[in-house]
Design brief:
Blueprint: H1 2-15, H2 18-52, H3 56-66, H4 68-75, E1 121-123, E2 135-144, H5 151-162, E3 174-178, E4 186-191, H6 193-200, E5 211-213, E6 216-220, H7 221-226, H8 235-250
Parallel strand pairs: 2-3, 2-4, 4-6
Antiparallel strand pairs: 1-2, 5-6
Helix pairs in contact: 1-2, 3-4, 5-8
The structure holds zinc ion (ZN).
Residues 245, 249, 255, 270 line the site of zinc ion.
């Protein structure tokens, strides 16, 4: 009531006329009588309800706890319905939030890229310290940008192969250490067939095989991904062969051949071109040349 009167006083200078003031007064009194009538009626109904249902207050409190919105709609309900009618709470329904759809299959075109050449090499950051007291031979991993390989995974696979007890460390007085430094002794490069052919010149790799030229050990990404049929799907074993064969060249080893069929092939045999009756073998300590 106080606010309403204040509002009328504030509005009077704007209108500047007594008619507006009188009209406002009549309207105010009408509203006042109406409000009083509803207040008295509502209090009477509330009293009857509380006498007949002593727990009604508690029930309302409980209901208010579970539905603030419904309670709010009751308190601001304008007195336009007859007091004898039970006001229907205005229920507001909201659509439940739908969870984001989950992809159940790989999107199309997700085949790994091993052939599209960017021509740019990126160094895999990080170190794998040499374990042992022998001379260190450092190498860094470089992967052609755009290839679908995780650098850390490739680096871990290469280092695991080079430091395997069946590997070159058992034959040569050295320990391999991975670095990302520019002055590494060797660069182990994983590249598309296109870039492999360029980096291997003057050797001819024909888009199919790998090589070692100067300080570059170039691994053909197509071979790294798919190996060769003779390995019968043993891709990890073939990758170890690839690393050991090319690093073997860097250590001064030349090619050898299969001497006895059905025995492990020498690691320095060109196993990618065929096994000639020998069995797949990735380790220089097994029938080493
Ligand atoms: Zn070779």
């Amino acid at each position: 009531m106080t606010n309403r009167r204040t509002g009328q006083r504030a509005g009077t200078p704007v209108g500047g006329r007594g008619r507006g003031r009188r009209r406002g007064g009549r309207h105010s009194r009408k509203k006042s009588y109406k409000a009083q009538w509803f207040s008295v009626t509502a209090l009477a109904v509330l009293g009857v309800v509380m006498v007949l249902h002593p727990d009604a207050t508690q029930e309302r409190n409980l209901a208010a706890q579970f539905s603030d919105q419904a309670a709010a709609s009751r308190t601001i309900e304008p007195p336009v319905v007859a007091p004898t009618q039970i006001p229907t709470p205005t229920a507001t329904f909201t659509m439940p939030l739908r969870p984001a759809p989950t992809l159940t299959r790989q999107p199309r075109g997700s085949a790994p890229n091993v052939t599209v050449s960017s021509g740019r090499l990126g160094v895999v950051p990080g170190f794998d310290k040499a374990i042992g007291t022998k001379d260190k031979l450092t190498y860094r991993i470089e992967i052609e940008e755009g290839l679908s390989f995780n650098g850390a995974v490739v680096a871990a696979a290469v280092h695991k192969t080079l430091t395997d007890p069946r590997g070159w460390q058992a034959i040569h007085p050295l320990n391999f250490e991975r670095t990302d430094s520019v002055d590494a002794d060797l660069r182990v490069i994983l590249a598309t067939p296109t870039l492999t052919d360029k980096l291997c010149l003057p050797l001819i790799t024909g888009g199919e095989v790998s090589c070692r030229v100067e300080d570059r050990v170039v691994l053909n990404a197509k071979r790294w991904m798919y190996a060769v049929p003779a390995y019968s799907g043993k891709v990890d074993l073939y990758r170890s062969y690839l690393v050991n064969h090319e690093v073997g060249h860097a250590l001064g080893h030349g090619h050898s051949t299969c001497v006895t069929a059905n025995t492990p092939a020498p690691v320095m045999m060109q196993q990618t071109k065929g096994l000639a009756g020998c069995l797949p073998n990735a380790w220089p300590t097994i029938k080493a040349t």
